[in-house]
Structure formats: C-alpha cells, structure tokens
Write a structure and sequence with these properties.
300 residues; alpha/beta; eight-stranded parallel β-barrel; 47% helix; 14% strand
Length: 300
C-alpha cells in the first residue's frame, strides 16, 4: 500500500500512524516485533540528527536494518527531520539527502525548513516535493516551532508558552504554505515538546505537555491534509486521544523508546536485554497510550 493512502485513511478514520525513531539500530527489531504483536501499523523512521549525534550510522544503514525485519502490512519506512538549518544553526545540503533516501527505498520523506521565514520554508519544501513526487512518494513539512532542542524557548515556563501559543502554527500561514509548497502532510506546533539532545539532559524526563485540541481542529478544517505531531512522548493520554480525533494522523515517538534502551545498556551492556525493554515499552505505548492496536485491518 502507498504510504500516502495509509496516512490519509488514518485521518479519515480518526486513527493515527505512530512513527518510531531509531537512534540505535538494535532498537529496530524490537519495535517491529511490538508493532506486529499488537496488530498495528507503524512507521520506522530516522532523522539526520540520529546519524549525526547518535548511533544510527546513516539513512542507508537504517534502511538495511529495516529490510531485515520489515513486515508487509505492518511497517513503513520514513525519513524523519532533514533540516535546512540544523540544531547547531548550520546550513544543510538537504536535497542530496532526500535523493539518497529515495534511492534507498524510503516510502516518505520529511524536510524541516521551519527555521527559515515563511517564503524560504515554502521554497525549500517545494523543491523537496518536486523531487519526492517525481519518485511517487509523499512529503512531510513543518510550520511553526515545536519546543525543545530546536527552539530558544527553553527558559520560558511551559504554561506561559502554551497560554500565549508561542511558536504555534498560524492558520493563515498554514493555508498559504500547504497550497504553495505542495506538501502532503504538515507537522504542526500545537503544544508538544521535542526531547533534549544535550548530554546532561538525555535521560531526563520530558516536561509534561498538552495539546491545543481546538487549534488542531481549526488547522485540519482549513487544510484538509493529515497533520503530524512531533515530540509525541510525554503528553497526557487524554490529549493524545482527542488530538487524534481532531486531525493528528501521524505521531512521532522518540524519547519514550530511546531512554529505556540507553538505560538498559548502561545497566547490563546487553543488547538483547535492551531490546526486551524497548519491546515491552513499545507494546505499552501502542496499546495503552496511542490506542493503535488492531489498526492494521483498517488502514490496509
């Protein structure tokens, strides 16, 4: 099945496709098994950050690992965050990375030009859309500033940021952006928080976050495309459930699985034990938090 169709079906049925990040390649086997055992559908994804600052190696390395364990009808391969300006505020030669992902067999790609102004973001996203659409795959883009490692808002109390909608995706800009960039899915800033990447914060619990469900509904009605939630770990369960019904069709989960793997490796330095920890936590997330068990028969 076409990844574009699956994510669209999720939107139309009030469901979500979880997308699990792979900063450490051994995690992939455990996550795929958890997805299959819960009869769910999920994306396996890797971001540029995860081969630059963690142990993913490269997008090709993750594609090779994915090929070993992928299960048709349950798993999809997605290229997460390829920034135009990265977290260290350096320019990235992003189009060759997108082409590499297409060559490696990724079923969808994501470009993040949200650090540029609106016109710059539109132009960069459209360039990726032209490349990806020519290969028959959908493009995810980002508009707004999801708090966390990619923003300068960390010193401001979360409740103040949420109340003032600081960095939130603006509806009028989103309408223009989607029309002119030709993106297929849009990552929106509606209250979630990215995990930290600083060494002293890697194992810290993320701050509790919530979602502006009304804002999600407004964006969904204005755009009529699947919305994506980045920073999906650490949000209260009720907000996740309501956010999915409001229009979130893909949700990224990184911290909730990375931390158990890294803790387990520190405890025992045993990959199989670490995989067991990831497997258990991933099943819990699918069943109890994301409520995506038994979605395979609906989305395929």
């Amino acid at each position: 099945m076409d990844t574009r169709i699956i994510v669209r079906k999720a939107l139309e049925n009030g469901l979500v496709v979880p997308a699990f990040n792979i900063p450490h390649p051994p995690m992939l086997k455990a996550i795929v098994q958890a997805v299959v055992d819960e009869n769910s559908v999920a994306m396996i994804q890797v971001a540029r950050l995860e081969w630059e600052k963690f142990e993913a190696g490269s997008l090709e390395n993750i594609a090779d690992e994915y090929a070993k364990y992928a299960v048709e009808g349950h798993t999809l391969l997605h290229l997460d965050h390829v920034p135009v300006i990265d977290e260290d505020h350096k320019e990235v030669d992003y189009l060759p990375i997108i082409q590499r992902a297409i060559n490696a067999g990724y079923g969808s790609v994501m470009v993040d030009a949200s650090r540029l102004d609106l016109e710059g973001n539109i132009n960069a996203t459209r360039a990726v859309a032209e490349l990806a659409h020519a290969a028959g795959i959908p493009v995810e883009a980002e508009l707004g500033a999801v708090m966390g490692h990619e923003t300068s808002q960390q010193a401001i109390p979360y409740e103040e940021i949420f109340a003032k909608k600081m960095g939130f995706t603006k509806v009028d800009e989103a309408v223009k952006f989607v029309r002119e960039s030709e993106c297929d899915w849009l990552s929106v800033a509606v209250g979630s928080v990215h995990g930290a990447i600083a060494d002293n914060l890697l194992d810290k619990k993320k701050p509790a976050a919530k979602l502006d469900v009304e804002h999600i509904e407004t964006l969904r009605n204005a755009l009529n495309i699947p919305l994506v939630l980045h920073g999906g770990s650490g949000i209260e369960n009720d907000y996740i459930t309501r956010g999915i019904k409001a229009g979130i069709a893909k949700i990224n989960v990184g911290t909730e699985l990375r931390q158990p793997y890294e803790r387990a490796m520190r405890e025992k330095n045993d990959v199989e034990y670490a995989r067991e920890c990831v497997y258990t936590r991933c099943r819990e997330l699918i069943r109890d938090f994301l409520h995506t068990a038994d979605d395979a028969k609906i989305l395929y």
